[in-house]
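Note to self: the last two entries modelled the partners one at a time, which told us nothing about the interface. This time every component goes in together.
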Amino acid sequence: MDEPALEQSGGVVQLRAVKISRLRLLVLVAFLAGGARLSAAIVFANPEQDFHPKPGEPEVVAKFQFENKGDKPVKITNVHASCGCTTTALAKQEYAPGEKGELTATFKIGDRIGEQVKTIAVTTDDPAAPNFALKLKATIPVLLQLTPTFLYWPPGEELKPKVIDVKVGPEFPIKKIDVQPSIPAVETRVEPGANEKEFRIVVTPKPASQPVSAVLKITTDDPSKPPKAFYASVRLN
Amino acid sequence: MAKLILRQAAILLGLAFLPAIASALLRPPQPAAWENPPRFGDEISVQEAERLGPQALWLDARPDAQFEAAHVPGAIQLNEDRWNELLPVALKEWSPARTTVVYCSSQSCGASREVAERLRKEAGLKQVFVLDGGWESWQAAHK
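The predicted structure of the combined assembly is written out below.
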């Protein structure tokens, strides 16, 4: 007769190879049961997304897909973007085990330039992982970079010309810029820069006894519609 | 027999709590990003900014609709949605004697910090601060 694989005597359950006390078996089962939910239920497929919008694009739309991989329904209780420039949309709040969803974040570019990072904070009722920080990154091409955008002559300073350096973004076929001061008391002259992608705007204010404030409107030969204008400011006294 | 089963069930339930307690201790609840914002050296409180009186130049970095709904009295709008159009208007009000205070909506908003950074970098302004606690802190101080 074969030896039974299992036999019980007193408080001991004996397997063929290993003696395990009943209490230890209970502990093992308890840990397995209790430890099963140490990980988050909601799992985002791509919590960080990178975008390179084309010049002129007004917005970037990121879709953050997720799945409830837990064994209980999870409710998304709050979604909060780090900037008023980013709006979010979610079809519903509660997701059943195994259910998939998608959170849409729309970032309005406006006059922003360069690298932008917008964080979307998501709060759930899952105690194992109540908070998520999704990231929408966008690198916005710079059409024209003005350095500086503000020229100031304090009272008493000699009215020597000051320069605004203009750099054209590498993606733009701009060959010419034009500058229009808002008042005749400020004179401007456009000079070529170190290369065909650079210009210098030389600004000279005329003497004035009163404070003078002017805006320089800078336009280009960029053919895109509508034509984009840039501005610099000048203050005297 | 029933007593034995009940005892075993009680032990099982009690032991099941141990991993949950361990989880709570090893991984305490993380604050949401906006509940624990990073601190920078360029912040100014509402009280400090108001002590400046007319020397303070208040700049509102929020979207247009929020500015139109309500804003700090005398604040000038300057957001990145319409930066090119709004900056010259803001700079008209600036002078070296004034301290610039930029605010947006609550500590979760990075717009005021981005506007402050652009003012320093592009316009070359000094004395630019971000309002600690944002618009909400101003509202709380004026309830």
